[in-house]
Design a protein that fits this description.
The chain is an alpha/beta fold and 394 residues long. The protein is built from 14 helices and twelve strands. The chain folds into two domains: 247 residues, Type I PLP-dependent aspartate aminotransferase-like (Major domain) (Aspartate Aminotransferase, domain 2, 3-Layer(aba) Sandwich); 127 residues, Aspartate Aminotransferase, domain 1. The chain is globular. The protein starts with 16 loop residues before the first helix and ends with a helix. The structure holds pyridoxal-5'-phosphate.
Length: 394
Amino acid sequence: MKQPGSFIPFSLPSIGIEEEEAVLRVLRSGWLTTGKEALAFEKEFALFTGSPHALAVNSATSGLQLAMEACGITKDTAILTSPYTFIATSSAALHLNASVQYCDIEKDTYNIDPEKIEDALKRDRALLKPRIKAVVPIHIAGNVCRMQDIMTLAKKYEVYIIEDAAHSFPSKTDNGYAGTIGDIGVFSFYATKTITTAEGGMVCTANDELAKRMTTMRMHGIDRSVWDRYTADKASWEYDVIEAGYKYNLPDILAAIGREQLKKADFFLEKRIHIIKQYNQAFAECPWIIPPPDGKGNAWHLYLLNLDLQKISINRNNFSQFLQEDGIGVSMHFIPHFLMSFWKKQGLDEKDFPNAKTRYESTISLPLWPDMTQIMIDKVIETVIKTGRMYAKY
Ligand SMILES: Cc1ncc(COP(=O)(O)O)c(C=O)c1O
């Protein structure tokens, strides 16, 4: 049973006095919505990642939709992604009346398989009317996809690459930060993410045209920002609407939190790495645990505990339940799309995604957040090992 006070939550944000003071500063300033804090957050995020443009948005879901819209994802087009993701990756395209095609993940990384991307693109390009206009790789848990291979395919098949970088801040690779490698990258600052604004996101691109389109569409298709309308010399009521846009801006209260979180991003990552090193070391002694993928620049948003179901006589759900009952908060990333009613109705069949299915059936997300104490880390390790040993076949 959960003991009050002794339960280790799956995730807790690290919010300090700096974030509290930043929110108060904005509340007392008289300007609550998108203004100079959001602009400063964008500049600071652009500087951090080296991205020429960074646009603050109210969620990564909105950011994905803006990105797809700017890339011309519309009726009669499709995106290609993996079913091993959060629904937002797909729903963004569906809301633009586009279709979504899927290919399986790699056997070992949870990330979309570039070879399968190429198979899908080949099939698509053989059609009279090819549909796939963008590929959306997701850097699952912060472990970066094989971006070099994916960018080579992008050139060969002339598709946009929209990185779903919701998990991968700050994943630094030899080619730059994940989320700045493709045409557009979309970060999430949802409450459980590596840095948070409660709800929020950032869209990065080096493409001036795409940035211009997304800036306009983010605010009702209006050609001037609200901040500009109220602070520039030109009368505030003068603006034009050039398209039916959305309302996806990030308010200053949230941007102010984001600015403080951004300053701590590298420190948070160090703390996450400190925790995962201990998990990895302790679990190396358990033959029934397959270590999580750890490519260059992993941001370690999640620790994916992968059970080797050949070597243990308990399934993932029961294992999770025992952890919860022993006071460990766990989660599951992700229930693949093909197991959801909506996608089943669309004909998505699990037989086409053996790797996603296998990983789904064996994976548990363990607590991983910067302020975990040593006692908490030890308790997670101890409980996982104790539970596994009871059911280990070897
Ligand atoms: C892979 C992935 N993409 C997109 C999103 C959407 O992020 P947001 O909640 O900021 O809209 C999430 C959120 O959890 C996610 O995990």
